[in-house]
Every structure is written in C-alpha cells, then in structure tokens.
Amino acid sequence: MNQNKLSSRVVKLIKSAAAAAAVPVVFIYILVSKPDFYLLNALGHVIVPTAHFIGDVITWPIRAVGESVENIYDLSHLRAENERLQHELNAALADKNTCTVAIEENKRLSNELDIVHATPQSVIMADVVHDTVALHHSHFLINKGVFDGVKKGMVVTSIDGIMAGMVVDVGGEFSRVRALNDADSNIAVRIAGDEVYGFLQGDGSVYAEIGFFSRPEFKGAKGMTVITSNISGVLPNGILVGTMKNNHEVKVLEPKSVSRVKVLEFNTNNEYK
Predict the structure, then answer these.
(1) Distance of CA 257 to the CA centre of its chain
(2) What is the value of pTM for the model shown?
(3) Under 8 Å between Cβ of 223 and 244
(4) How many domains does the chain have?
(5) 246 vs 117, 137, 192, 223, 251, CA distance in Å?
(6) Of 28, 191, 196, 241, which has the fewest beta carbons less than 10 angstroms from its beta carbon?
(7) Is residue 227 part of a domain?
(8) Exposed, middle or buried, 40 (CB in 10 Å: 0-12/13-18/19+)?
(9) Are 124 and 262 in contact (CB under 8 A)?
(10) Rg (Cα) of the chain, in Å, rounded?
(11) What is the predicted pLDDT for the residue at 14?
C-alpha cells in the first residue's frame, strides 16, 4: 500500500515537472509559428512569474549553501581581523604604560633636582638666524624683536628648556643674545637639589667657570647639575644651565648647537609670568 502511494507521488511529481518544462516549449512554439502578441503578452504574465518561482525553488539549496560558505568566510575574516586589532591594542597599552612610568619618573627626578620643565605662560618662539663667535665673545641673533614683545634682559632657552643666554640688544624684528660661554656672561647659579650658590663666568670656550661662595669648602664633581639662582634678582630660579665637567667647569650650550629657541619673561618676584 505504501509502495503504491509512493509510486503515485513520484508519478505526480514527474507530471508536474513535465508540465513545467512543456510550458516554455509551447511558448517558444507560439512565438515562432503563430506570433500572436496578445496571447504572448498574456502567457508572459503567467510564465515569467512561474519560471521565477520554479527557478527559486530549484536553486534554493545551492543559494543557501553559497550564503553559508560566504558567511563562514566573513566570520573567519572578522576573527582574524579582531585578533590583529587586539594585538595592536595590547601593544599600544604597553607603550602607554611605559610612557606613563617614564613621565612619572621624570617628574620625580625634576622635583628632586629643582629643575623647571613647565612651559611659562609668557613665551616667544624664535629662530636663530646668525651666530658670532670671536675670541672670547659668543653671541647669536634671533628673528624676533620689539614688534614681537622681546625686551632686553629676557631669558633665552633651547626648546627642551636649557638656558642658552640672555637678550642684550633689541631691534624691531631682531634681537641679540649673549651666550653663557661669552666672556661678559656672569650669572647666579646653584647646584640642583642643594643650597650651594655660586656664579658662572664664561670664557669663550664650551665650558664656563663656576665659583662657589655660599660654601667655600664645597667641591663640585663631574655630572652635577647646575641651575639658575634668583639670588641676584636678575634670573628666575631653576632653569637648567648645564652639567659639571669637573670641580670648576660646566658644559653649557653653544650658539651653533641651537636653531630654535624660547624667549621667556618673568615677573619681579623672579617667577615665570
């Protein structure tokens, strides 16, 4: 009985397929032998949707498999991309942690050495356009002057905050700066992290002479950091000047070693404005 029912269903399926296959044949036959456009138009409204439906039914498994394969590929690609981005994020976080540690360490050392690294509120950026070194004298010109707010006596530092000299002459668009190694340069300084005061005198060479007066028995040593002192009322306190070569010489910036500088202004309390 079951076998008869199965045979009957198979026969119906074959008949349906044959009928579906015969429809396009009839359509083509009419188109070639008896081109009745009204009939063709009517058949087109029936055959085209039927063909689309049959095509969709027949190709559904293939399309389903293709979409599944495409989804699997996209998922695999997204996972690989996610892993790459995760590695990059981890590396960036590691770099950030390293930078944070370095910044905190720099702050700690700066506090211990009394070195001022903060950018003043009043600062004029300038370029070094010419330097003059003759005998024991050392000067350089910057391309900012009175029109830009530069005044005689202002402190000039490198971009990273190391003192390069002081403004001694000011014009409209240019200013002349006396370098620390100039023979006429004589500034008040002290040892960073200590209350040992002295004066730094230039002699035209890379090294300036330092003499201590607050503690005559003090002996300087190679590697000690020297910063400005405000005891003379001329300079602010805590600008990095240089490091000691031995017990009486300090390595300072030469004009030829700087190309861009900061011109700083400070108030009468020897503090940065």
Answers:
(1) 26
(2) 0.55
(3) yes
(4) 1
(5) 25, 23, 16, 8, 10
(6) 28
(7) yes
(8) middle
(9) yes
(10) 44
(11) 62
CATH number at residue 189: 2.40.10.340
pLDDT one-digit tens code per residue, 16-40: 555 555 555 565 665 555 555 555 5
3-class SS letters over the chain: CHHHHHHHHHHHHHHHHHHHHHHHHHHHHHHHHCCCHHHHHHHHHHHHHHHHHHHHHHHHHHHHHHHHHHHHHHHHHHHHHHHHHHHHHHHHHHHHHHHHHHHHHHHHHHHHHCCCCCCCCCEEEEEEEEEEEECCEEEEEECCCHHHCCCCCCEEEECCCEEEEEEEEECCCCEEEEECCCCCCEEEEEECCCCCEEEEECCCCCEEEEEECCCCCCCCCCCCEEEECCCCCCCCCCCEEEEECCCCEEECCCHHHCCEEEEECECCCCCEC
Task: Establish if 112 belongs to a structural domain.
Answer: no
And the tokens for 41?
Answer: 């138009």
* Domain presence at residue 12: no
According to the model, what pLDDT value does residue 205 have?
83
The backbone torsions φ and ψ at residue 43, rounded to the nearest 5 degrees and listed phi first, read -65, -35
Give the tens place of pLDDT for each residue, 91-120.
887 777 777 766 666 665 555 555 654 456
The two tokens of residue 72 are 């699997």
For the chain, the farthest-separated pair of C-alpha atoms sits apart, in whole angstroms, at 127
The residue segments making up the domain with residue 259 are 123-264
In a domain, 52, yes or no: no
Beta-bridged to residue 125, according to DSSP, are 262
Average per-residue pLDDT for the chain: 76
pLDDT digits (tens, 9 = 90+) for 140-177: 999 999 999 999 989 999 998 899 999 999 999 999 99
